[in-house]
Design goal:
This protein has 301 residues and is an alpha+beta fold. Helix content is 38%, strand content 24%. Strands 4-3-5-15-6 form a five-stranded mixed β-sheet. The N and C termini lie far apart (54 Å).
Length: 301
Amino acid sequence: MDRLDVMRLYVSVVEKASFSQAARALDLSQPTVSKQVAALETRLGAQLLRRTSRGLSLTEAGRSYYESSIHLLDEFAAAEARVRLGQVAPSGPIRLATSAVLGRAQIMPRLPDFFARYPGITVETDLSDRFVNLVERRIDIAVRIGHLPDSSLTARRIGRTDVAVLATPGYLARHGRPETPDDLTLFPCMAYTIDGQPRPWEFSTPDGVQTFIPRGPVRSGDAEHIRAGVLAGIGLAQLPTWLFAEELAAGTVVPVLEDFAPPPYPISAVTPGGRLQPGRVRAFADFLAEAFAADPDVRIR
């Protein structure tokens, strides 16, 4: 086997976590697969995989070689495709991780313009509010709201999100208006949950950041459900203002506690660290940064 074939074989073993399953997928015998991986480790002078009774796990060297292999194989496939099709523009698939609400409201509506510019690129979405492991899930790029934990990932700020506590005028007429964050304990509030836990609301006060755990008749892990609850007059909710752009302009939803609004949260394009970004991923991040910069609801200022 040449080195590219061995890379493909190694990637298959890692992703299937099994020599036998990789052998079946590649139409090879299991001894051949085991021998090729052993020869690869010998050539590199490093152990790549740990074999235990439970299966396979990656060493640090094995993870690094896996990430590099994925990048090189993707670039090789893209180069061949460009030659075959006479293309010079980026092409190929992008696996995107983002939240459902950010994808629906801020990314999907912009994709027609992106595809018009880059017709050879496809986008597959992985929807979750959790910060998933990009390498394990083979995610090329994640678009996230909020401050990111320190990690080996590479983050680029491409936009911002203003948040506010929001309600309908009818709700405020029935329940009154909170004047300080401490007043919220007297009001029905709706909780947006992540992994079943309510996301704390944050407020800026003279003493620093104040948090509040919302409690009320509705809890949901879907921001669209919380949005619908606000419009139905069920309770207060702290959500991105761009989710209510039309309603705020029309006055059918109004912000409260504006003097205590937290600073905007960053919107970041996040990619696995330690690897070169394929051209299609760079093109996608550049496109979103350009599109967000033209939108007053999300542009950095």
